Amino acid sequence: MNFWDFLVNRHEQLLTDAYQHASAVFQCMVVATLIGVLIGVVTYRSEWAGNLATLTTSTILTIPSLAMIGLLIPVVGLGVPPTVTALTLYGLLPIVRNSIVGLRGVDPALVDAAKGIGMSRAARLLRVELPLAWPPILTGIRVSTQMLMGIAAIAAYASGPGLGNEIFRGIASLGSKNALNLVLSGTLGIIVLALLFDAAYVLIGRLTIPRGIRA
Fold this sequence. Notes:
Layout: H1 3-9, H2 11-43, H3 47-62, H4 65-76, H5 80-90, H6 92-104, H7 108-116, H8 121-151, H9 164-172, H10 179-208, H11 211-214
Helix pairs in contact: 2-3, 2-5, 2-6, 2-8, 2-10, 3-6, 4-5, 6-8, 7-8, 8-10, 9-10
């Protein structure tokens, strides 16, 4: 069976796996973004706290994904829980680092001006600092998403959702006539999803970042 015929015959399963893969990555990115930006907000004013946050999330990223999921299985079980936990943890570093860099890069004169007109610290953060730090934060989110697209495939090892199931089925059936088709369909599906997500982030950037800041 050639690759095209294989895609036609398995398109429903592939679409289901692709939806589950995209959904898992999207939901984990939402959680990782909220946690990462919060960590950045809490730590960016202190040099040692910022370094500690970056070091901690960097350390998490050095753990091999297969080992991470294997360590999580005895704690949270199989399926979705280890997938969500691992992906969220892996997605933190670029967001935390870029949040700290972006917030520290805001012009102090603008913050002082906002303070001078009576803005509270929370108002300055929400209306001045975070909007100006948004471009690097968005870049961190894009980097995290691209990483998680590939890492999410390993979730199939723990009976997790996504296109990794196609890849693992292909590897498990090496030598059969459709083994290569399974691996190829899962791999290409992940690449397509990664490109679609990145295009969405480009659009979000154009809609949310003023032209002057983009320049």
